Amino acid sequence: MKLNISNLLTLARVIVIPLIVFCIYMNSSFYGWAAFTLFCIASITDYFDGYIARIRNEVTNFGTFLDPIADKLLVAAVILILTSKEVIADWETIPALIILLREIAVSGLREYLAKIKVSVPVSRIAKIKTSMQLIALAFLILSESGITIIPIISIGKIALWGAGILTLYTGYDYLKSGLKHF
Length: 182
Description:
The structure is a single chain. This protein is mostly helical. Helices cover 77% and strands 0% of the residues. The two termini are 32 Å apart. The mean pLDDT is 91.
């Protein structure tokens, strides 16, 4: 395993997840802001780890393996803690569940396809989907900061629905591509 800057950024994203969850769990505006800040930094590393690996020609098997897992762990952990705190509740559990189920299904599909030596590249719309998920979750985390001037929670919930719709679309797209190989 080669630890270059890109792989360290990806590892940092995984390592910071428990701290983000802890900060969300605490009921204070300070911890809400801390969780939001840490989550935004972790989300930004999702872009930069791959970008840096490509421009420095340091793409590794470890990074290729860990990057999508780090993304899914970050999103799943935040969805679960926000659901347990009822920030995501009632109807908003539907897009949250769609996101979680799609991530599991696509991971399984990718694993199967990798065994038969078929690569399914990440589509542009899937990258937009990931960005939308991260934006939605960032707003929902920020709702724990005590801001009352603007409807942060409503913005987060609308963005979560948008992310859920994009998630359904990209899940269908991957499934359609993958079914050709069954």
